[in-house]
Amino acid sequence: MAFRTLTVDDNDGIVTLAIDRPGVLNALSRQTLTELQRFLTGLTGFRGMILTGSGERAFVAGADIREMAAMTPEEGEEFGRLGQEVTRLIEAAPFPVIACVNGYALGGGCELAMACDYIYATADAVFGQPEVRLGLIPAFGGCVRLQRHVAPGRAREMIYTGRNVDAGEALRIGLVNRVFVTREEMLEAAYESLALVSANSPVAVALSKEVVNDSRGREIGAALDIEAHAFRRAFTSEDMHEGTQAFLSKRRPAFPGK
């Protein structure tokens, strides 16, 4: 695929996807969201993905305000639903996605990061949902996902006040997993994490991600039922037979991924 606002680098099945509009701090325009939608639809063959932004100043500083200022209510809803679709596609990817955040991750940028499986950040990273300062609300999933990443009271405070949090606070409240000094260290650590994941059964990783996502917020009985059904499905896979036989034979498994 050819893109104007994205760059894609596939390194042996671990793909780095970068929002590439550094001149406007990687702001999410209609075109950028549409290109993300195109790339993320029906993804197969990857073992993991790193989502980041080009340049040194921002992951994604937010949605393109110049575009939004001219939108009708109907166009605004359509724009919001496009952003929601992109975040849903990230969340549904059948492999782990790590957000690597340096600089600003505000508004739509914070929402993109929260759709990933976990977030790594540099010490200069800044997170926030400042939409209320513009007379808007977080609409790419921020109102829903932020309270799943941090305590509901903290989520409400961030959304209602529009205040930003730095990398240290984001780490303390559980929004990010790890903080690094440099962007290079962060990207290297993300690749190493995905390399560890890729040594495991792709089927089991995908099923685990599915259960984690689908069971969230459900009553415990319903959540455990989802887990039990996924456990049964694991028994139908070639990966399960390869993994158990390798363990019994004291050899390294060669998972076929099916």
TrEMBL record:
Reaction catalyzed: a (3S)-3-hydroxyacyl-CoA = a (2E)-enoyl-CoA + H2O; a 4-saturated-(3S)-3-hydroxyacyl-CoA = a (3E)-enoyl-CoA + H2O
Report the InterPro entries cross-referenced here: ClpP/crotonase-like_dom_sf, Enoyl-CoA_hyd/isom_CS, Enoyl-CoA_hydra/iso, Enoyl-CoA_hydra_C
Is Lyase there in the keyword field? yes
Question: This protein is called what?
Answer: Enoyl-CoA hydratase-related protein
Give the record's family classification. Belongs to the enoyl-CoA hydratase/isomerase family.
Q: Name one Pfam family in it.
A: ECH_1
User: What PANTHER family would the database entry show?
Assistant: ENOYL-COA HYDRATASE, MITOCHONDRIAL, ENOYL-COA HYDRATASE-RELATED
**Does this entry carry the keyword Isomerase?**
no
Matching SUPFAM superfamilies: ClpP/crotonase
Q: What is the organism of origin for this protein?
A: Nonomuraea helvata
Q: Coiled-coil ranges per the record? A: none
Keywords of the record, alphabetical order, are: Lyase
